[in-house]
């Protein structure tokens, strides 16, 4: 009887393999371990155990946001990859944020279909790690030429993840909107807006158009609080600037300031959740849909 069972089990396995070969749609594509053009690194399959060094072994930007070249730049050091939040204030005031070393930032150049999330394909991907080089967050960007195509993809994501915990307008100038899903192990934020483009043909004729950006941020929930704290900065009562001491109030700074970058959730800023512009429903849907915080979504 046992021999008969093993025989039928073997036949079943062979039939399954043969079916997959005849129907390529059933073949599961492996996750990319190195990002490059058309690698389609699947952001739905991330487990925060990826190997950053291997993932960016072929394509990585140096600290000047230029494609890294070993002969020109020398050895790729931890100092080159150290995560820093910079803007005009940090540059002028010569302050370092995070105030304590947080981790390392790996950034790709722009490459077609370097990553994907469902049917959205991205042309750039950044990975932020902690000090032990364990992935903490992923950030990717892309653009659409048609607004309805972007909306269609957003609708597909909502169908998969359910209603976002937060959906709100950040600014009405370029219709910046933010959507945030809090899952059991990760938080996903998608931000959309629009911009203007200008192109010129060989005859010198120019034309204007619109494009529709979309970015996605995926954060490991275990590190979400530490990542937020990395954006905080407390100004001293006296600031040395151009040889003189000034009060932080002279520069209209808040003593406790949160500096923004691509890895800060928009919901971290409470003003974003208060329907400031009156254009969109900024009310958290948490009370309406309790399952939003831990939906039964499998990645």
Structure description:
The longest helix is centred in the N-terminal third of the chain and has 21 residues, at 2-22. Residues 1-27, 276-280 and 283-299 have low confidence and may be disordered. Strand 8 and strand 9 (186-192) form a beta hairpin. Strands 2, 5, 6, 7, 8, 9, 10 and 11 form an 8-stranded antiparallel sheet that branches. This protein has helices spanning 2-22, 52-55, 70-73, 78-81, 88-93, 147-161, 224-230, and strands at residues 41-42, 105-107, 115-117, 120-122, 124-129, 135-144, 166-171, 176-182, 186-192, 195-200, 206-220, 232-234, 238-241, 244-247, 256-258. 20% of the residues lie in helices and 27% in strands. It starts with a helix and ends in a 41-residue tail after the last strand. It is globular, with a radius of gyration of 23 Å. The chain is of the alpha+beta class and 299 residues long. It has 7 helices and 15 strands.
Question: What would you say about this model in short?
Answer:
By secondary structure, this protein is of the alpha+beta class. Helices cover 20% and strands 27% of the residues. It is built from 7 helices and 15 strands.
Which terms would index this structure?
alpha+beta, eight-stranded antiparallel sheet, 15 strands, about 20% helix, disordered C terminus
Task: Reconstruct the topology from this structure.
Layout (H helix, E strand, L loop, with lengths): L1 H21 L18 E2 L9 H4 L14 H4 L4 H4 L6 H6 L11 E3 L7 E3 L2 E3 L1 E6 L5 E10 L2 H15 L4 E6 L4 E7 L3 E7 L2 E6 L5 E15 L3 H7 L1 E3 L3 E4 L2 E4 L8 E3 L41
Parallel strand pairs: 1-3
Antiparallel strand pairs: 2-5, 3-4, 5-6, 6-11, 7-8, 8-9, 9-11, 10-11, 12-15, 13-14
